Amino acid sequence: MIDLRSDTLTLPGREMLSCILDKSFGDSGRLNADGRGDDPCVNELEDYAAALTGKERAVFLPSGTMGNHVALLTRCRPGDVVLMDAGQHIYRTEKATCDPRFGQIRPIFYHLTKDGYPDTAEIAAILKTQRPKLLCIENTHNGAGGTCIPVSVMAELRALADESGIPIHMDGARLFNAATALGVEAKELCRFADTVMFCISKGLGAPIGSLLCGTRDFCLEASATRKLLGGNMRQAGVVAAMGLYALRHNIPDLAEDHRRAGIAHDALAGLRHFRIGSAQTNILIIDIEGLGISVEDFIERAKALGLWLSKSTDTHARMVFYRDITDQQLYQAIDIMKALDQTFD
CA–CA separation, 55 vs 191, rounded Å? Predict the structure, then answer.
């Protein structure tokens, strides 16, 4: 079975696992007055993440979901309005911040352009009549097929936010995919956002964890929010060590995931019965709206042929390339998709 459901399936390699053996650990949940814990490896990871993103400080968290929750719940209070798009992970699958039982944040939605990045004209129009507490963006945008927000658009978003006096939070779960695809350093994208969350447990290959980066004062507050949400960890250096390895060694390999996605896109562009979206990074969206079957049925048919896909929306499936997928598996997946297309003749 070729499993292309998500890059969260990436497994740590032997070198990454062995890097734990020469590290020192401590209780990362016991914070001093400066908000730092007792685990030196966690502190090293947080400092390295802050440097990569050009921010003053970073906070290590168990997951990207918690990273986004901590960011919004630190910035906002119940009833506050937050500007986001309805397809963002923050709203679509991480709804606790907007849930009336929990965060009670009120979302206002903007749309994406046909290229998959925020419609700055619409955002400008919204900001003329609304006063949100926060603007949220996602880069790369999972639901739009791994599309990247260009630096020029990031600059426009920053100008709009500054004009309205609101901060920007960037869900950068796949931040380094965006930086790789755009040919810039991650900090070049992050300088337009006040806070940014990125994952080390997707294409970078670490087993657990995400980093939330921002100013020192924000991160002190975020550390307190993390504790309230149950996100404090003890000897978290065990996983922080692998996160450090991922950031120091695996970022260049993301280009290989993009290359394979591009090959798949070009090979499948001529399919008759379903369409393949653009391939900016490592995610391909498969539009099956015209097939007359559910996306769950489509995924089961592909799985029966040996290819495991995942659901993106009710009319779209998804295939994601990551470091454990070989070229041989790539071409096998292409052949399966072609064979699946023929079953609808």
Answer: 8
Whether residues 59 and 188 share a domain: the answer is yes
Summarize pLDDT for 180-220 with one digit per residue, the tens. 999 999 999 999 999 999 999 999 999 999 999 999 999 99
**57 and 200 both lie in a single domain:** yes
Question: Which of 60 and 290 is assigned the larger pLDDT?
Answer: 60
Give residue 22's pLDDT band: very low, low, confident or very high (50, 70, 90).
confident
Q: Of 187, 215, 249, which marks where a domain is finished?
A: 249
Name residues whose C-beta falls within 8 Å of residue 135's C-beta, 6 or more positions apart in sequence: 82, 83, 84, 123, 157, 160, 161, 166, 167, 168, 169
Domain that holds residue 36: 12-249
Residue 82: its H or E element: strand 81-85
Alpha helices in 208-326 (DSSP H): 216-228, 237-249, 254-268, 295-304
Q: What is the mean pLDDT of residues 56-66?
A: 97
* Mean pLDDT, residues 253-262 taken together: 98
CA distance 60 to 45: 8
Whether residue 307 lies inside any domain: the answer is yes
Rounded Cα gap, residues 85 and 251, in angstroms: 28
Q: CB-based contacts of 131: which residues, under 8 Å, 6+ apart?
A: 81, 164, 166
Pinpoint the alpha helices (H) of the chain.
Answer: 14-18, 40-53, 64-75, 89-92, 120-129, 151-164, 175-182, 186-190, 216-228, 237-249, 254-268, 295-304, 327-342
pLDDT at 345: 84
pLDDT, the chain, mean: 95
